[in-house]
Amino acid sequence: MASKKKEVLEELYKLCSAKNNFVFHNDDVKKISSSVGFGNPFDVTKLDNKDKLPDSFIKNDIAVIHLGNGQHKFVNGINKIYHTFEPIKDCIDWNYHKSLLNQYNSSESNILSVANNQRILHHFLFNEDREFLNEEIINRPKTYFPHRTKTSFSYNFGQDNEIHLHNIQIEIDLTIEYKGIVGVFECKNGTPDSFSVYQLYHPFLYYYNANFDNSVNGNIKGIYGVYVVRNKDGKANDILSLWQYTFEQPLDITSIKLVKSCQYRLIKAN
Length: 270
Known about the structure:
Layout: H1 4-19, E1 23-25, H2 26-36, H3 55-60, E2 62-68, E3 71-76, H4 78-81, E4 82-84, E5 91-96, H5 108-117, H6 120-126, H7 130-134, E6 142-144, E7 147-156, E8 162-172, E9 174-178, E10 181-189, E11 194-196, H8 198-210, E12 222-232, E13 238-247, E14 256-268
Parallel strand pairs: 5-14, 10-12
Antiparallel strand pairs: 1-3, 2-3, 4-11, 6-9, 7-8, 9-10, 12-13, 13-14
């Protein structure tokens, strides 16, 4: 049986098909959620991996993009909107001394906090920089904590398909900057097989546009989106899987490209 959330999505698509207009508003989501009996309309359009789409959407290559100002749109092109995680070949045993609050909760923000405090995020992004490995703390990467912001921007969704987003809210789980290299992080628990590209692309584009602002003045030399997934092995050790991506064409969300990936197995030191 389909979930109530998927039922709401299918009814929304029927509504849009009847109007021959595939843009819909949060007000439409609320009305249909109420009629279907789904109690959390704010969750309907949060589709961070392909598994959350109805089977009919998978069959007909339908997905949802966000336009801002409470508007969304049904589009064709699931494989442009979602990216399947590549297999990871490299694995590092990372010895660490467990801190007091490391495992107090399993929230995504706590996962990133642990990975940041243990310098796993730094090692993953900058481990080829020999100077970085020997620098004092004052010269280490700078961390910027989670925040939400609203912005407007435009980008291409493949060739000849421009998307305009107005007053869109973007969420950035964590940002790290070092010598003009910016890393933005998204984090999840569990084993998703795919992710919605906008989770990395919107923060990427936010900082890409910032490079044209007087306060940054073109000093951003590179921007990378990093997806972090936490699991446990058979010995209950945390395993952090990290994938680093960039966008070969900064103004095209479909130009995502893997840079590298690695797993870190956290081994508690005695």
